[in-house]
Write a structure and sequence with these properties.
544 residues, Immunoglobulin-like, 31 strands, 19% helix, DUF7939 domain-containing protein, transmembrane
Length: 544
């Protein structure tokens, strides 16, 4: 070969080398179904190039769902070469013949690639029905704030990797509550066994009219078959990404019916029940003044959330003090959706003897099964309260039910004047026959000792010990504890706090300082023994 021929071949090789693209492009497959994704791999061995390929040319026909970059070094024939690969996940926007155009990285360009995107065929279980999604509503016509259950079922006849995801359900003018975790099972369709992923939601429309539920999209990576795995590139992933969407749904929301009573909280439910439990049961046990009765009332409504249940009417009865706890709200999930529970607990303490009538408790609700107004109630109950000798008949003075048993003011004043006159004359007569100083032996605890016990119990913040010491001290006084509390408001408030600590189940921490201060500040005109005089000195020999 002449020198001219050698020179010509050298020039031709150089031209071909310059024309060869330095950016290599490849795909994992050129035929795919609509809704499936593919992976585009771009590889460059030009170490002088920096940055990322320009992917703007893909935006017309494809959705770029992710990009990964891999750098590697390999040795070939004793020569070490560096390469950079970009793996790009693409989702075709339409079916038909598509073209991946030339992509540029610096001065390098990739070659175009032709693709064939097939329309999904429902009659082909081996392709189109490998993964599909179904959305259903248990009812397409509901009342406002009533429950509509949305069920999503994802069917797949091929194995899926654990990178699956479901788009969130977000609705305007509606409250969405997930009904537990997704559950999985299998189902045979047209002789083909499918795995099923089921997800359920409780939808509560907050406005009448129509509520549009948009399509929900499920994305996952389907494992390739054995044939596809054998034909796959060593650099490509054995599997492909699948994306399917549900059909949009429309929900008709009816307003509150005209038959619903005004001013009553709206409660649309499939069923509603009321239950009560007592501890102890007043029907089986005698009730005395000062006893603590715990009443539990549970409101249960199927088809509602616990936050939709209104508070129950309070037990406000004259002669019965009420100490409520915080309501307990919880939801139960079943195959029919959500069931709301509201439990209200209260301690009831009778304050005087007699018959106490508890009124019936009634809740109005709308039956969504039969479409009409209903009322559920608890019957009225009567409590027969007996006197408690240990409390000295703590009957409130201001109670209207006992006003008829009180004496007339002029009768009471005459009786008090006569008794004081007789008592004064008797004391004067006895004093004349006694020495000036008499050392009397005490058969029981003195008022001073009882008062010290009460002080120590209050300072220790012990409600049980304080109540015992208080009852013992009150029995040494000319008045009952109820009479002293009726004429002295600070003492009444302090006793309310003590009873709350004793009978309420909330476990509140009690401070005895307020009660001790109230005992020490009872007006002297009504008090026989003053706690303020703790100097230890004896009373005057001849009191004025």
């Amino acid at each position: 070969m002449s020198r001219f021929g050698v020179l010509l071949l050298t020039l031709l090789w150089a031209v071909l080398a310059q024309a060869e693209p330095l950016l290599q492009a490849s795909v994992d497959r050129t035929r795919l179904e609509a809704g499936e994704s593919l992976e585009l791999t771009l590889e460059s061995q030009d170490v002088t190039q920096f940055g990322k390929p320009d992917l703007r040319a893909l935006e017309g026909d494809f959705e770029v769902r992710g990009t990964r970059q891999l750098n590697s070094l390999h040795t070939l024939d004793g020569e070490t070469r560096a390469s950079t690969r970009w793996i790009i996940t693409l989702l075709p926007r339409r079916s038909g013949s598509l073209r991946i155009p030339e992509l540029q990285l610096g001065q390098s360009h990739s070659q175009p690639i032709e693709l064939q995107v097939l329309q999904a065929d429902a009659s082909r279980p081996d392709s189109a029905s490998q993964v599909f999604i179904e959305a259903t509503l248990d009812s397409t016509d509901v009342y406002v704030q009533a429950q509509a259950m949305l069920t999503l079922r994802i069917y797949h006849s091929v194995a899926l990797y654990d990178d699956s995801s479901l788009s969130p359900l977000q609705l305007d003018n509606a409250k969405v509550e997930p009904l537990g975790e997704s559950r999985t099972y299998e189902k045979e369709i047209n002789g083909v066994r499918h795995g099923v992923i089921e997800t359920r939601y409780a939808v509560y429309a907050q406005q009448s009219g129509t509520l549009d539920i948009p399509p929900l999209t499920f994305t996952a990576t389907a494992a390739a078959s054995s044939d596809e795995s054998a034909q796959a590139n060593a650099t490509a992933r054995a599997g492909h990404q699948v994306q399917v969407s549900s059909l949009p749904l429309r929900l008709t929301v009816r307003p509150i019916p005209a038959a619903w009573p005004a001013g009553v909280p709206w409660l649309p439910a499939r069923s509603l029940t009321l239950e009560e439990h007592w501890n102890p049961d007043p029907g089986n046990q005698q009730v005395q003044i000062g006893d603590s009765l715990t009443r539990n009332i549970t409101l249960r409504a199927e088809g509602l959330s616990s936050t939709q249940l209104p508070p129950l009417p309070a037990t406000e009865i004259t002669g019965l003090r009420r100490y409520p706890d915080q309501p307990l709200l919880r939801n139960e999930i079943s195959d029919r959706g959500m069931t709301a529970n509201r439990e209200e607990r209260e301690a009831l303490v009778p304050t005087h003897a007699g018959t106490l009538a508890l009124p019936a408790l009634e809740v109005a609700w709308w039956n969504t099964r039969e479409d009409h107004l209903e009322h559920t109630s608890l019957p009225a109950r009567t409590l027969n309260v007996q006197d408690n000798p240990a409390l000295g008949a703590d009957t409130p003075v201001g109670d209207n039910s006992s006003a008829s048993t009180l004496l007339w003011p002029w009768q009471l004043a005459t009786l008090v004047f006569a008794l004081t006159t007789v008592l004064g004359f008797a004391l004067w007569w006895r004093a004349r026959s006694q020495p000036a100083v008499l050392r009397a032996a005490q058969n029981g605890p003195s008022p001073r000792t009882l008062l010290d016990d009460l002080k120590r119990a209050c300072q220790a913040n012990d409600p049980q010990a304080t109540r015992q010491a208080l009852d013992a001290w009150a029995r040494q006084q000319p008045e009952t504890l109820a009479e002293m509390a009726a004429r002295f408001v600070p003492l009444s408030d302090a006793l309310d706090g003590l009873n709350g600590a004793l009978y309420s189940e909330s476990g509140q921490y009690w401070q005895g300082e307020e009660l001790w201060r109230a005992i020490g500040t009872i007006p002297p005109a009504e008090q026989v023994l003053l706690p303020a005089g703790e100097n230890g000195g004896l009373p005057p020999l001849y009191p004025k």
